[in-house]
Amino acid sequence: MTLLAVENLSKVFGGVHAVEDLSFAVTPGTIHSIIGPNGAGKTTLFNLITGIYTPTSGRVRFAGADVTGQRPFQLARLGMSRTFQNLQIFFNMSALENVMVGHHLHLDRRFLPSLLRLPQVVASDRACRATATALMEFVGLSRYVGAQAAAMPYGALKRLEIARALAAKPRLLLLDEPAAGLNATESREIDEVIQRVAESGVTVVLVEHDMKMVMGISDHVLVLDYGRKLAEGTPAEVRANAEVVAAYLGAPA
Amino acid sequence: MFAAFLQYLFAGLTSGAIYALAGLGFAIIFNASHVINFAQGEFIMIGGMATTALVAAGTPLPLAIVLAILITMAVGMALEKFAVEPARGADVTAIIIITIGASIFLRGAAQVVWDKEFHSLPAFSGETPLDVAGATLTPQSLWVVGVSVAMIVLLWWFFNRTLFGKAMLATSYNRLAAQLAGVAVKKVLLASFALSAMLGAVGGIVMTPITFTNYEVGIMLGLKGFSAAVLGGLGNGMGAIVGGLIVGIAEALAAGYLSSAYKDAIAFVIILLVLFFMPNGLFGKRGSERV
Amino acid sequence: MKAVLGTPRFGGLGLLALIVGLAPLAFPNAYFYDVAVNALFNAVVCVGLNLLIGYGGQISLGHAGFFALGAYGSALLTGRLGLPPLAALAASAAAVGVLALVVGRPILKLKGHYLAMATLGIGIIIHIVLKTESALTGGPDGLSVDSFSLLNFTVTSDRQWYWIGGGLLLISVWLALNIVDSPMGRALRAVHGSEIGAEVVGVDTTRYKVFMFVISAVFASVVGSLFAHKNAFITPDIGSFFRSIEMVTMVVLGGMASTFGAVIGAVILTLLPQLLAAFEDYEAMVLGGIMMGTMIFMPKGLLPSLLLLWARQRETAP
Questions:
Q1: Which of A81, B233, C15, C168 has its CA 20 to 30 A from that of B218?
Q2: What is the pLDDT of residue C6?
Q3: Other residues' Cβ atoms within 10 Å of the Cβ of residue B136
Q4: In this complex, do C249 and B97 lie within 8 Å of one another by their Cβ atoms?
Q5: Rounded-to-integer distance, Cα B142 and Cα A21, Å
Q6: Pair C284, B105: CB distance under 8 Å
Q7: Which ipTM score applies to this complex?
Q8: What digits encode the pLDDT tens for the residues B121-180?
Q9: Which residues of A touch C203 (CB under 8 A)?
Q10: Whole-angstrom Cα distance, residue B77 to residue B39?
Q11: With 0-12 CB in 10 A as exposed, 13-18 as middle and 19+ as buried, what is B44?
Q12: Within 13 A of B122's CA, how many CA atoms are on the CB side?
């Protein structure tokens, strides 16, 4: 059983192979981590999977359907959502509204009822507000429920993105370096959030720099180097892999 | 048949040269600061209006030209210093509104300082037209094209052979890196406005004997220069020149063969078609968003 | 802002209704009604345009073109085909909506300067067509328009137009507030905040941008139709580039992403030329100066800046 399958995926930027002939599969209900040194192509891979870049060759399959080249909002409809290494917060809105936008697909979006603000729109709005508040509490942002996004600290914004992505009720959540730029305490807290997300039945794909964090929470680890698969397996298997050690420590294999 | 075609071509090349200079002006400022200066057309207007006013006041033409260019460059630098620089870091919409505001302000000022009448200059070297394969070519057209070519060569030399020019180019590629390498970025910005103002003024002066000038001519000339710059791909100098010529020639041919009333619409029809089908212009690089 | 205005939907709307209702008490003569109607009309256009520019973050430098199409559509459909004014208004608005939809799809894929160029191009082309097709439009000389009538009632005085304009403004503001606070409005504001961020949670960004482009064009067209009837005479210059810029300036001055701000901006910029009538020559300089000054010193616009100031003062006060 596979939720996400990447098959012979390649992306070339002006002659540079950012991702080269990469294949892997993600089993539902697991935490799947992608690690690798800087410039290994992790973020490019995320952008390919989530439809922000179009692959040069290869395919992406999601829940059995070929979704190669689909736009991000189409993938979101199929149940894929993500966060970003460089935050993509709506700074012109409140924190709660950020999460409410995440719930977009599950709301009554018809024009006329919205235009006239019919009772069902008011009711659905109230429900949406409650859901968004609950999600903010779930990721540990209860104290920012009334805040403007622009007034929040960096660490809180990272969680806000997770809450927003969860509001879309994804089956697959891709997290791009959720712990980057956080201190040790914040990092541990994000860890817990991710584990709680996984326990709630959402499959998680994680790009992370922090080896310790990855080894602690992942079911499966994929190691990239220069856009190619270097190794794959359980955390223990990967840790024991000589090539991985070499890539990370710079020693000859 | 051919004579008529040639005639339109000459007309197109003449106005195309002016659009090319305006387009280059857009490109230089855009490269230095990522600002689209909607007041570029007003530089053309000020160059022409200042020269005619100075000549009318008794200044000899060559001196009037030099003074008018200097005045326009001063206006350009003032625009950078007092309107663009204070708004650094604002979003694109804000900058667009600021430079449009500046263009309206300059137009209003020109109408107050000078007047609302049309003005002309005597042709630089007589009015006797040349005959080229049955088509007539005025000496002033040759001036327009010749001066434009000279300006382009001068610019090429400036950007490729002088230290300051190279510093400006470096800033356009990577602002931070240039700053770290010791380039005074603020000076580069100021210089880019001065240079664009000079290009506009020169264009405005050489075209005045043919087209006349008045406080409003900058609107259409500026917008067509912008079309030229977008057509060639924003920030691409060579593209702006080619874009300017394409706009000028297409316009002249359309006026000759289709309808002279729609002449002014041609530039915008072309630009819309290009933007629909090639959103980054003819020669623009495809930018991808980094997330 | 919500905390300041209480419930903006009803608090602000009530205040606006009060102002519209009481303002005529201060009008010494009929001429004031004429200016006030223009202010109300501009305000309605700006409330629509603000959805696109202020909330959606998408610039349009060509909306006067849609306004002019609405005006000419109504003038021709009533004058040449004898359609009832309300039907002509609706037909023109529908046609403008379809046009905005057709051009909007390719245009709104563009960003920043390219979008500015494209919208500006559309506006200028419309203006040139209106000037040139004189057999139909009367060309630069203009076109006279019948007065507006519904059933047996004909609108004759500026006083009557004032109440129509006021009613229309209140309805427009109410609709705009509803849109902004709906899932659709939030999606649109999210597009302004981060297009990619909105896409990954399922927002079809192009769709919402095009949608708001169409809505704002329809607003402009409807007001254009009414303007034509009220003015009884129209020229192509109601669709000029300068008019488009004026509309954008009203939105920006009053406050981007503030519906009431857009109304205030429209009112100020409509009244300004009246106040400056003695200095007619300086009008352009003042308008240009306002555009630059607002963006440099008060980029959020008048109303949001004032509200912010007020909120801060209340915080510091004991």
A1: B233
A2: 42
A3: 13
A4: yes
A5: 59
A6: yes
A7: 0.89
A8: 988 888 888 888 888 888 899 999 999 999 999 999 998 888 888 888 888 888 888 888
A9: 73, 101, 104
A10: 12
A11: buried
A12: 10
Q: Where are the alpha helices (DSSP H) in chain B?
A: 2-33, 40-56, 61-79, 92-113, 139-161, 163-173, 175-180, 185-211, 217-231, 237-257, 263-277
Specify the CATH number for the domain of residue C228: 1.10.3470
Chain C CB contacts of B100 under 8 Å are 61, 245, 291
Residue range(s) defining the domain that contains residue C69: 2-311
Q: Is A63 left (phi over 0), alpha (psi -120 to 50) or beta?
A: left
Residues with Cβ within 8 Å of A17's Cβ and at least 6 positions away in sequence, in order, are A10, A11, A226, A227
Q: Does C125 lie at the interface with B, CB-CB under 8 angstroms?
A: yes
Whole-angstrom Cα distance, residue B78 to residue B82?
6
Give the number of other CB atoms < 10 A from CB of residue C128: 20
DSSP string, C94-132: HHHHHHHHHHHHHHTTS-HHHHHHHHHHHHHHHHHHHHH
User: Nearest chain B Cα to C294, which residue?
Assistant: B98
The pLDDT score that the predictor gives to residue C304 is 87
Nearest to A43 by CA among A214, A217, A205: A205
Which segments in chain A show pLDDT lower than 50? 251-253
User: Tens digit of pLDDT for each residue in B221-272?
Assistant: 999 999 999 888 887 888 899 999 999 999 999 988 888 888 889 989 988 9
Do the bridges between strand A172-176 and strand A203-207 make them parallel or antiparallel, or are there none, so unpaired?
parallel
Contacts of C285 in chain B (CB under 8 A): 104-105, 108-109, 112
Cβ atoms C64, C247 nearer than 8 A: yes
Starting at the edge strand found earlier in the chain, the sheet holding A220-225 runs A80-82, A172-176, A203-207, A31-35, A220-225, A228-233
Q: Name residue, tokens 């829940």.
A: A63
* Beta carbons of C175 and A167 less than 8 Å apart: no
User: Could you give the domains of chain A?
Assistant: 1-79+171-253 (3.40.50.300), 88-169 (no CATH)
Domain regions of chain B by residue span? 2-115+184-277
Q: Directed axis angle between helix C241-254 and helix C112-132, to 10°?
A: 140
Compare all CA atoms of chain B with the CA of A53 and give the residue at the minimum distance.
B288
State the total domains in chain C. 1
Which among B148, B142, B196 has a CA at the least distance from the CA of B33? B196
Percentage of chain B modeled with pLDDT above 70: 96
Query: B288 and chain A: CB distance < 8 Å anywhere?
Result: yes
Cβ pair A145, A136 in contact under 8 A: yes
DSSP state of C255: -
- Within-domain flag for C167: yes
- Asked if A246 is an interface residue toward chain C (Cβ–Cβ < 8 A), one would say no
Residues listed for chain C: 318
> Which tokens belong to B29?
């400022």
Report how far apart, in Å, the C-alpha atoms of B199 and of each of B19, B68, B192 are.
Answer: 11, 12, 11
The set of residues, in sequence order, having a beta carbon less than 8 Å from that of A199 and lying 6+ positions away, is: none
For residue range A105-131, what is the model confidence (pLDDT) as tens digits? 998 888 888 888 888 888 888 999 999
In a domain, C221, yes or no: yes
Q: What is the pLDDT of residues C273-311, one digit of tens each?
A: 888 777 778 888 988 998 899 889 888 888 888 888 888
Q: What subunits touch chain B, counting only 3 or more CB pairs under 8 A?
A: A, C
Residues 6+ apart with CB under 8 A from A243: A230, A231, A253
Answer yes or no: is C146 within a domain.
yes
Q: Do B98 and C107 touch (CB under 8 A)?
A: no
Q: C20 in a domain, yes or no?
A: yes
Chain C residues within an 8 Å CB radius of B268: 120-122, 124-125
Residue B230 tokens read as 């977008």
Return d(Cα A252, Cα B4) in angstroms, integer: 75
